[in-house]
Design a protein that fits this description.
The protein is mainly alpha-helical and 64 residues long.
């Protein structure tokens, strides 16, 4: 259960997810994964403004 979503809203969300096809679920999962990666990179850049691309990749690997 989510801590920031009402039970009613969560039920609506779950019902929407249940109606998705396998391909749609995969696409959503990949989009969420990409969003998480972008947020992680943004956090690294904020904490380490001078980081090179290679340093960012290493830090992403470390975060894991």
């Amino acid at each position: 259960m989510s801590f920031d979503t009402t039970p009613e809203a969560e039920l609506v969300q779950l019902n929407v997810y249940r109606r998705l096809s396998g391909v749609e679920r995969l696409r959503l999962a990949l989009e969420l994964s990409e969003l998480a990666r972008k947020l992680a990179v943004a956090g690294i850049r904020q904490r380490q403004p001078g980081a090179t691309a290679a340093e960012i990749v290493r830090e992403l690997s470390r975060l894991g």
